[in-house]
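Late entry, evening session. Most of the bench is empty. Finally got around to the prediction I had been postponing all week. Sequence below, unchanged from the version circulated by S.P.
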Amino acid sequence: MSLTRRLQISLALLLMLALAANLWLQVQRTRDFLALQLQSHAQDTATSLALSMAPALAAHDNVTAERMIDAVFDRGYYRQILWLDVNEQPVIKRESTVAPAQIPAWFSRALPIQAPQAGALLSGGWSQQGKLMIESHTGYAQLALWRSFVDLLFGSAIALIALGILVVYTVQRSLAPLHRMADAAHQFVSRRAPMQLPSAVVHELQPLALALGQMSEQVAAQFNAQAGQLQTLQTQLQHDSVSHLPNRLALLDALSELEHAHQASVVIGLRLSNLGNVNAERGYAGTNAALLTLAEHLAAVANLRWFRLSGSEFLALTDSSNAFGTNAPGWLNLPAPWQAVAVQLTISADVQPGAVLARLDGALNEASQRQLSWWPLAAAETLPAEAWRQRLNAAIETPVFQFLPATIESLSARSQPAVEWLARLPQPNAETLTAGQLLAQARRLGLENALEGALLTSLAKLPRDHRHWHVNISARALTEPGLRQQLSSLARQQKISLELSESEALAITDLSTLLRPLRSEGIGFGLDQVSLSAGLLTALPRWRPDYLKLGLGLAGAGPDSALLSSLTRLAQALDIAVLVPVARDDNAAAWQSTGVDGLMRPPA
């Protein structure tokens, strides 16, 4: 129950009790007043009637005296009038039990009025003739008390309603600044708007408003400092320090954007064939100056966006309308002392970034072997969609996937024994495909949900042991209730963590909201194929994933890479584990010194 509702109910109950007590006191005072009035009236009537009867008694005229008694009794205000002689024997007795009005029985029982009695001596001349006793009728007093009670009850009810409305209004108005402060804090935490606290608050809430204002300023300063650090880190991570061109990480972001946009493009790769000789002749500083001149020459080429992949390799992106022909373009006449080979590759809309780089590297190697300075290639070929559809439909209809454990070798105490899973399709050639490859094709063909269900059904049959399984899923699985229920059921049987690729995670606007109920059930969360794009660096402090699995591009930089060093520092600051994919023959000791948390080893 809210504070506003509690205060309103409490004050309303207090008002009700106060008005009820006031009503009771007023009725009691009225009853006491009516009782005293009856007593006084009875005594006055007895005295005046005794004096009026004195002449008749002196003349021994009992008939006249009786008529006087009847005249007073017929007025109806007395229950009994009794004339006693000197021997205490009744001479005349008049008695009535008729009530003057209908009064609720419960009211008469709750607030009874005792009938008062009064007496006076009767005398005829100098001789005493007896005694006169009068008892008042309480019916009229009860009727007056009932009417007074009804009037007070209606008045108290009207007052209670009016005061209740006033209490509700006063409490809401007094606590409205508190609600506005809470709304401002929620908006500030979700970073939707700066915290704007109300200017007019009650005295008791002023310290709270001051504390919230100071806290928001400190948090905003921390956010700004963190954003600045992330921006600086992003600039350092995505730009080459020598040529000032975007580096491999920026290229992977650009290729991912092309993949999501389903846009065909042209890729040009350039490899310096004499970098070693130039470096030996000119030294480190001279080679860097020559590389900067080369970068400026390449950047001046219209409609080409250049990246530096490594020491001797450069890559350019452009759309298919800017493709060069079979003759070497003019910009390939590089400034001295550089010599290079270049290839041109047209890629279709559904080729993944890793496949582009692998095909480009193979084309450069072949161009060097053929001693070609310029080699335009045909478009990269992919498996036809219908062939993939047949494979995936067979896998969905017969979910007999086999899961091959790719172990994660822990390099720190934070890591747990874990495995990554590889799914083997039930094909005669027994081709092994990762879950990421399967889901990428399923997403392209609209079979994503069905394949997710088949994979999770097979995954539920895993042995129950100490290993921690990393399950690569698609973004849509987080929004499908059926798949979310399967994941929750699986988590109760086996320790698992969900993985999303970096590009898919960035495409979900409310990722934190979708993950919150799953993480409450003990399901972990990690990012796969991390390339440290601009959006990811901004989102990491908000998401706080359990681990990052580096993409091949980032892992290929090696243990001595400055990029990897910067990433591990950022991950340690946010308490995020860093996992690196390596081959079986890689030196674990070299990676141990980098601060990464684990090495992902492929199956034996």
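Two things to note before I forget:
Residues 327 and 374 are 8 Å apart (CA to CA).
The chain is about 50% helix and 20% strand.
Will write this up properly tomorrow.
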